[in-house]
Amino acid sequence: MKLLSFVNNGRPSWGAAVGGGILDLGAFSGGQFPDLKSFIAAGLPQDLLAAAGAPEFGFDDVELAPVIPNPAKIVMAAVNYYDDMTDHSTLPAYPVLFLRLPSSQIAHGAPLIEPRSSQKLDFEGELAVIIGREGRHIPSEKAMSHVAGYSIYNDGSVRDWQKHSHQFTPGKNFTGTGSFGPWMVEAGDLPIPQVGVSLVTRVNGVEKQRTDTSRMIFDIPYLISYISTFAPLEAGDVIVTGTCTGFGATRRPPEFLTPGDVVDVEIEGIGVLSNAVQAEA
Asked: Which InterPro entries match (predicted)?
């Protein structure tokens, strides 16, 4: 099942993508589950999905929102693919993590904003993990039972601001740079992490990044266990698992995004997240 968040005539809701349309499960639940996060926290009750009727909306009738518009936490991993490491003897001992603000997020189809203060907007195609069940000190062997599903993330990064200090925070939190969507695929519908799935990023139709999720240095169970050691995880939290080589700053000469560019991130079994770059007004 593909679950998503959207806005229709100014009304936020959530639902399921079915047969080219959208079931408005927020309305169908009669307010019991006002947003996707609350439905996830309830354990994704399948009786609601089974009782819903035909799709109420086409995709052209709604404005998509980030899959989880209101996560309590967005924890991002960096340098997390073997593709990035030319010398495996220098592999990091622990994950490199940083936080992204929910206010920096945009949806599939929304403009990816090049800020006025920089011309070094970059792309990073990544797999997003959506937490389904709260937990603290979660052992790796039980971590996957805390996963609700998976989505796609473009961790748009403003590279010069990212390098102002040793902390990534400024360059990773510009408004309109964190693209998240188009939907969440339930965990049981994908073989992750037992089997890797392909991740490909294209700019204007040209392939820039390609990897397989089995090539993560710190896999999903490890990330969940590690993060839950210092912070309790709760339903709707998002863990974004890092990118591979090929993003603009790694190229010679560097290839940063400019207005009019279109970035597509495709993950096998999930779909395509697409955003066009627009200059900040």
From this structure: FAH, Fumarylacetoacetase-like_C, Fumarylacetoacetase_C_sf
Reduced to 3 states, what is the DSSP secondary structure of residue 216? strand
Superfamily for 74-279? Fumarylacetoacetase-like, C-terminal domain (3.90.850.10)
pLDDT score, position 215: 95
144 is written with which tokens? Answer: 């996957």
Q: How do the domains of the chain map onto residue ranges?
A: 2-64, 74-279
pLDDT confidence band for 90 (50 / 70 / 90):
confident
Find the helix or strand (DSSP H, E) in which 223 lies.
helix 220-230
User: What does pTM read for this prediction?
Assistant: 0.96
Q: Length of the chain, please?
A: 281
Predicted confidence (pLDDT) at residue 77 exceeds the cutoff of 90: yes
* Cα 26 from chain centre: 21
User: Which residue matches tokens 């994908």?
Assistant: 190
What is residue 46's DSSP assignment? H
List the one residue out of 94, 61, 63 whose CA is nearest residue 80.
94
